[in-house]
Amino acid sequence: MTSRASASPLRGAVDRAAWGDPGYQAFLALRAVFTAAPVLFGLDKFANLLVDWPRYLAPWIDDVVPGTAQQAMHAVGVVEVLAGIAVAFVPRFGAWLVAAWLLGIIVTLLTIPGYYDIALRDFGLLVGAVALARLATRYGRGGSGAGRADR
After folding, report:
1. Range of the domain at 104
2. Which of 9, 40, 89, 148 is 20 to 30 A from 2, alpha carbon to alpha carbon?
3. Is the dihedral of CA 86, 91, 94, 95 positive or negative?
4. Is the pTM of this model over 0.70?
């Protein structure tokens, strides 16, 4: 029985040439960040270690949603964790979910005086999430690149 030296033991393994592709490198970097950040920030909504999250909830939203601002942040945290997991496993979908979520955060922040700088920062993150979604059509699972760089 002969084995082919060029066969990869990993199903769907990335072609070695893809690792040198700047587009693929950008895809991997954005995918890692948009997986980790939403999960970590989402989990922190339950601990408030990084910041007092309820203060970022616009008063008009706090008036509309049932419960306390902290309970609303718990719901936000669950959505953020799920969005990060979606980016990890289905980046073509998850990146658009993160982009839409960021748009909602931006609109909320624009209704709170004094948070415009954070809204601008989140706009930059939204652009990064859209870039990830576009790259995922080529490099993500099920895309035309399906984990490899097209030649």
Report:
1. 21-137
2. 148
3. positive
4. yes
